[in-house]
């Protein structure tokens, strides 16, 4: 009897599939562990000289759509002698079974053991994935501590935005890469390739040294951290002569030369984003002071309108997706966004393809774009992000939107047929008072009042959504103190009362928020130093998993672990979170160079406290944040003046080439 | 592919229709849906060699070309074997029964044989299953038209070489549906049969039931004489 067609493909030689498959009927959503996505690549193990396992440390449904991993996966697999496979965090039900049956952390592509790869790359968009990293390392059979690893273990490399301060996971990773990954993975691959071709001289240590010498790969073990008696850092210095004092971020210039993903992964399982996503530009210089992404990805580099059009066309043909997302940190700021939206809407008119733009800019232009995109009949939601409730706090965070602008914009949306808009704010911002937050209620009331007057209808709504502020490294708020969860939760309670103080208006306003506790822990992890690693390990040992999921996150587990571990270092949870830092304090990430001049960051922090606004360098003269000269980069924006041409309609079905009928 | 749920499959199939450029018809309304109706989807965790569905099209296409285009657009493991032009009558009405094969690794065929005899001897075998409406009890016996223990064969490649008992059965399409796991629950109820490892279930065929109790091709009525595939 032949084996029934239950395995997605012939089993690879070193596959754990025969041992994994019997476990899958016993777990929830087994399809997420099967792989076999459209766009997935399975290569011959023995024909590859450099092998990468790439991980997004969250559940498959969140990790699969991640653009970073998809881009690196494709870039690496395009090289003939390189093999890249993907792995995601397994849910606790499967983790338990894997431990009981001795099944290691595996890739979903060919179900190979992660430990067998040369490089294990992990992409962190949030610090809340750290405990999942430990689960994956441990399940893989790799020693938890980098110091205990041997030549038989892969080199574990962290990347993504959280890697701009990898100190809390410095004990667990071998290296970290700052900045854009496309070229970095190729450079690392080349170093590993050469080192292996030479017969792996000097073992693991030599390989890490070669990586460190690039000055763009941070190898924590080559740096010592000294502390002052009061617990602050005295200095971070290399412990050997041949590694650089500072490690610099990577910047990919000319996004038109890197049009990835070309072959987006199309999963069988349901995931959080079911769309073809195109990054229309990278970087942002709006200068919102809380925004780490905007600070560490400078300068702005646009992808041209024609490349975007080409990527959308090919991406849709390849994937069969019917939704396109035009992504970036502030998509309406693309120099040719108007032509891009109308051009795409024209090209896909009459098809079932819908286009979406994450909208954050508060002005009428955004509504024009949204109307253009909804020509096919499907209205996507409109979200505006004033971020701060009062004019004063918006000056503090450098989000230049007046209350009048916001109300006018939202009313325009209502009169153009939108019945529901979402308003996004933050709570816990530096210098914030109860009054600043309570102004959110006034704003929401006025929006509804003005909307009812303009439309003559009671059938309009808005949702107020509140996120907790977390100070991040490499931002002007890196010195700021956090508010305690009690203060945050009390402000949110007062705000809720204020919104509902008018029953008629309150009924038209939805209120969503996160409470303050998870934000405080995110704050511990984002600005933590190497001593926080012991807290992460303790939490993980006590069962901490999937900390980004409210049903799995336990605040108490973190508080208890911090109380158990940190006092021996003379510090505590408050010291990392609610304490304001001084100008001269050595910050744990000072030796990691995002290009931003620390003096400029401090000046921007002082400007923030005096409520002084900073303009955007795309439209006003350079304000010397330091990135372009230190990274040898420049702003790359249009307009190119080109337009999207109508697509030639394709008639008939796509038959496989050479098919015999 | 056995771990694909029906929802997952439906999504993948709709995308494949777009990739293949099939001129599928859409429902009217605010969120138009492609006109596809699935007949009696196999439960998650079950492999299948015989699934059927109907697609509404905007334009006529050659069934052979449709089959080839769709097959090429679907993931490996999802194969389109045949396509015919519907001549009338609902596909769902022609799915009267399914033939299933259940592989029970590490189960002694003799033990299985005894359990099957006890099952067949019973007039009614009550089993329970969680459904969307909550826990429901129903008879798993009446819908089973035939159930046989097959002679043992070599275990599938890659699996450890231990004994493996194989069951083949024909189950009628009834409401509430009686699924292979319900029959296994029935075997547990009548004879305490507890498979030590999860069984592997494959749907072999679906279709109309002939007078002899065999399953006939449900698309037979739509073929104009010439048989395809």
Protein described:
Chain A contains 22 helices and 19 strands. Chain A is an alpha/beta fold and 661 residues long. Chain A has three domains: 17-244, 3-Layer(aba) Sandwich (Rossmann fold); 275-380 and 615-648, 2-Layer Sandwich (Transcription Regulator spoIIAA), CATH 3.30.750; 381-531 and 571-594, Transcription Regulator spoIIAA. Chain A has a six-stranded mixed beta sheet. In chain A, strands 15-16-17-18 form a four-stranded parallel beta sheet, covered by helices on one side. A three-stranded parallel beta sheet of chain A has the order 10-13-14, with helices on one face. In chain A, strand 3, helix 5 (130-139) and strand 4 form a beta-alpha-beta unit. In chain A, helix 13 (403-415) packs parallel to helix 14 (434-455), helix 14 packs parallel to helix 15 (485-499) and helix 18 crosses helix 19 (555-565). Chain A starts with 16 loop residues before the first helix and ends in a 30-residue tail after the last helix. Chain B is α+β, with helices and mostly antiparallel strands and 229 residues long. Chain B has two domains: 6-83; 95-209, Alpha-Beta Plaits (2-Layer Sandwich), CATH 3.30.70. Chain B is built from five helices and ten strands; from the N terminus they run αβββααβαββββαββ. In chain B, helix 1 crosses helix 2. Chain B is elongated. Chains A and B meet through helix 9 of A and helix 1 and helix 2 of B.
């Amino acid at each position: 009897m032949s084996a029934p067609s239950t395995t997605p493909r012939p089993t690879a030689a070193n596959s754990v599939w025969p041992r994994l498959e019997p476990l899958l009927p016993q777990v929830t959503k087994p399809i997420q562990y099967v792989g076999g996505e459209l766009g997935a690549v399975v290569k011959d193990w023995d024909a590859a000289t450099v092998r990468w396992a790439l991980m997004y440390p969250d559940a498959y449904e969140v990790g699969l759509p991640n653009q970073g991993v998809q881009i690196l996966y494709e870039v690496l697999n395009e090289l003939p002698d390189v093999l890249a496979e993907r792995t995601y965090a397994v849910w606790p039900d499967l983790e338990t079974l894997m431990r009981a049956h001795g099944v290691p952390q595996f890739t979903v592509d060919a179900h190979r053991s992660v430990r067998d790869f040369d490089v294990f790359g992990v992409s962190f968009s949030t610090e809340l994935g750290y405990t999942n990293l430990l689960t994956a390392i441990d399940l893989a059979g790799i020693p938890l501590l980098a110091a205990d690893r041997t030549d038989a273990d892969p080199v574990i490399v962290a990347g993504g935005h959280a890697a701009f301060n990898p100190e809390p996971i410095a004990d667990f990773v071998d290296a970290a890469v700052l900045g854009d990954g496309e070229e970095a993975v190729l450079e690392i691959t080349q170093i590993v390739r050469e080192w292996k071709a030479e017969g792996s001289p000097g073992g693991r240590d030599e390989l890490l040294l070669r990586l460190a010498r690039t000055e763009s790969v941070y190898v924590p073990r080559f740096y010592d951290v000294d502390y002052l008696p009061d617990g602050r850092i005295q200095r971070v210095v290399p412990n050997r002569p041949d590694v650089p004092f500072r490690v610099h971020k990577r910047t990919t210039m000319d996004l038109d030369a890197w049009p990835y993903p070309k072959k987006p992964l199309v999963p069988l399982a349901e995931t959080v984003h079911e769309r073809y996503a195109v990054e229309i530009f990278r970087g942002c210089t709006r200068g919102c002071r809380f925004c780490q992404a905007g600070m560490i990805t400078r300068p702005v580099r646009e992808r041209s309108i024609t490349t975007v059009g080409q990527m959308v066309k090919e991406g849709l043909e390849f994937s069969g997706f019917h939704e396109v997302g035009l992504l970036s940190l502030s998509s309406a700021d693309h120099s040719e966004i108007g032509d891009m939206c109308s051009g795409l809407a024209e090209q896909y008119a009459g098809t079932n393809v819908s286009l979406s733009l994450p909208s954050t800019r508060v002005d009428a232009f955004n509504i024009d774009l949204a109307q253009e995109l909804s020509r096919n009949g499907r209205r996507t939601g409109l979200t505006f992000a004033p971020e701060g409730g009062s004019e004063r706090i918006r000056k503090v965070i450098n989000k230049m939107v007046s209350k009048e602008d916001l109300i006018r914009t939202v009313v325009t949306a209502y009169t153009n047929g939108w019945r529901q808009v979402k308003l996004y704010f933050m709570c816990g911002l530096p210098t914030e008072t109860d009054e600043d937050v309570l102004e959110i209620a006034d704003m929401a009331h006025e929006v509804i009042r003005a909307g009812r007057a303009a439309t003559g209808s009671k059938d309009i709504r808005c949702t107020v959504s509140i996120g907790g502020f977390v100070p991040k490294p490499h931002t002007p708020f890196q010195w700021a103190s956090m508010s305690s969860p009690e203060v945050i939760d009390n402000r949110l309670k007062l705000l809720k009362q204020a919104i509902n103080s008018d029953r008629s208006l309150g009924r038209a306003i939805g209120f969503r928020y996160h409470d303050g506790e998870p934000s405080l822990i995110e704050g511990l992890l984002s600005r933590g130093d190497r001593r926080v690693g012991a807290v992460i390990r303790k939490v993980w040992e006590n069962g901490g998993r999937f900390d980004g999921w409210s049903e799995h996150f336990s605040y108490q587990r973190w508080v208890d672990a911090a109380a158990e571990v940190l006092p021996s270092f003379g510090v505590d949870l408050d010291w990392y979170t609610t304490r304001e830092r001084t100008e001269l304090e050595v910050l744990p990430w000072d030796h990691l160079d995002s290009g931003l001049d620390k003096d400029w960051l401090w000046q921007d922090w002082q400007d923030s406290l005096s409520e002084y606004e900073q303009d955007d360098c795309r439209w006003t003269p350079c304000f010397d944040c330091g990135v372009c000269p230190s990274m040898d980069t420049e702003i790359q924006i249009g307009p190119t003046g080109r337009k999207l041409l109508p697509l030639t309609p394709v008639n008939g079905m796509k038959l496989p080439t050479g098919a015999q009928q | 592919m056995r771990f694909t749920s029906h929802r997952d499959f439906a999504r993948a199939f709709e995308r494949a229709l777009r990739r293949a450029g099939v001129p599928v018809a859409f429902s009217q309304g605010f969120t138009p849906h492609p006109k596809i109706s699935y007949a009696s989807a196999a439960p998650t965790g079950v492999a299948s060699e015989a699934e059927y569905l109907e697609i509404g099209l905007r334009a006529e296409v050659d069934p052979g070309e449709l089959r080839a285009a769709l097959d090429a657009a679907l993931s490996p493991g999802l194969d389109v074997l045949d396509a015919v032009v519907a001549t009338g009558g609902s596909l769902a009405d022609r799915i009267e029964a399914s033939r299933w094969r259940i592989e029970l690794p590490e189960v002694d065929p003799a033990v299985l044989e005894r359990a099957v005899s006890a099952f067949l001897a019973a007039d009614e075998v009550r089993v329970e299953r969680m459904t969307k409406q909550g826990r429901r009890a129903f008879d798993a016996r009446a819908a089973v038209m035939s159930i046989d223990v097959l002679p043992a064969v070599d275990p599938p490649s890659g699996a450890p070489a231990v004994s493996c008992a194989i069951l083949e059965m024909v189950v009628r399409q009834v409401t509430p549906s009686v699924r292979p796991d319900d029959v296994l629950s029935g075997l547990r109820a009548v004879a305490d049969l507890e498979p030590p490892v999860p069984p592997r279930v494959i749907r072999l065929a679906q279709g109309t039931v002939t007078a002899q109790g065999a399953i006939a091709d449900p698309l037979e009525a739509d073929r104009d004489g010439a048989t395809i595939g």
